[in-house]
Specification:
Layout (H helix, E strand, L loop, with lengths): L8 E2 L4 H13 L3 E2 L12 E3 L6 E5 L6 E2 L4 E2 H9 L15 H8 L9 E3 L9 E3 L19 E3 L6 E5 L2 E5 L3 H12 L3 H22 L4 H8 L18 H13 L2 H23 L4 H18 L7 H20 L9 H4 L18 H24 L20 H7 L3 H13 L8 E5 L5 E5 L1 H15 L2 E4 L2 E4 H17 L17
Antiparallel strand pairs: 1-3, 2-3, 4-7, 5-6, 8-11, 9-10, 10-11, 12-13, 14-15
Amino acid sequence: MSDERWAAVLNPSGSEVRRILDVLAASGGLDKTVWFRELGRPAIPYVLPGKAPFKEQRCGQCAFYAPAKRRCVVWWLANKRGRFVQERSKWPGSITEFELHKMKHAYHIGPHSSACLRFLDKKRDHLKPAIPRLCEICRKTVRPTGKSARCRNCGTLYENWHGKVKVQTAYQHRFNMIYHEVTGGDSKADLDVWKSKVKEDLQDKRVVFGIDDDLEDALAEEHLEPEPKLHWKRPAYDETLQQRVNTLARNTDIARQLSIAMAQSALNATRRIAKFAKVYQGDASSLTAKQERYLALMSGANPAKLLPYEALVMKQYWICYGLALREAVEWVGPRKRSRFVPESVESPAGRARGYSPVDAAINYLHQRRRGRAEQINMEVGFHGTCDGFLHKRASGSKKTGLIFDMIDPFKFADREELLLVVLNRGLTWRDFKIEADRRGSNFYYPANAATAKLDQAGKDADGLLVSYRGRNIHLAEAYREFASRLLEVSMTSKSVPSPGDMFVFQMD
């Protein structure tokens, strides 16, 4: 048996063969290990002593693992360089058959998969009191530029964050070295080549789907100017409001009412999306049926299970949203990861970042909705912010949960308007800027042309006629009435919130 073979037998099917291998393993002739595959159940390989081609560590702990894309950036890029090369002899570096297997499946590696021998344990992001003189990762000199500093060697970012310095670790120098050892090429040059090919493929798709530049320009509404930004001081934490919210949460069932209203809004929005986006009826019916089942369970569920049920309802909504985007050759990624892109850019619009253009657009609209809601809250009488009825944390909270409890059902209107713009080819990936994070994953943020279109979509959402407390009124006015009613309920113990006071996204 060759030392380079990474497994003697993988999942042996014959009981006699397995018995013999177990005997050899008991005598020390073979090592019986557990290999956690990329996806799926673990396997039991038998390998020569000390020749296991993988480590006990997991890929999720490796510095080269991109959690947003669920892939290894080293083997993913190497696979792009030699996509059809599956023989070790054709690679300039020393590469084993197990690493060839990793390369083949690099695009869908789970965080719990067994790591290869190229594993590099990453240092987690953390806080420091000041920017250090030497980089923590590569020990090279760091030269601060303004409020932040980035190591030119490894790419580690040191950024001011609430009076301290947040260290966002990167290992670009080790990535370049390992990539050159494996492929003999330059990682930056190969990545640029792949990006150019992707752009060519997108151009070909535009021709196939009949999307010409004249039509896109006609729908883009380039004459729109960016919406003037509102300038006001962001509300601070209000201890008095927090006490009132806590009292109301203890004495009433308002948390359940808000959660049910949110789930009902998601159900209504899913039905609307499936209708105007012409989602296949079989898929849409299955998704709404699951939402109705979860919604029915929420009425008598334990309060601790309200958020899990709400998350399950929203999961069906996002699946339907993704199906609708297929018509525009666009996609929406996992929302939890795309809400928190761990990078920063100098552009003010770069605050709205996402791992796809649609995610970045959604984040921009959500930020706009929050800003408008905070302004309305100040106008109706909220003197600050606090933890909410549903959005609250035991520790490390930013004390802003109440605003998210209030605006969540209103966000469906923003996302619906965005979907209409995307389906009409009024917004494409060309309207966004692309940058790469420290792990090689591309993220997007809106350019000036995109912000103008997104601001207009937000205005259109504000003007939608929705049903609230028996009347059809504009969405912005509905939020003002909802905020006033919630403030009235929280101010006095005599007033008890009713399900009719909650806002449910519903249009005739």
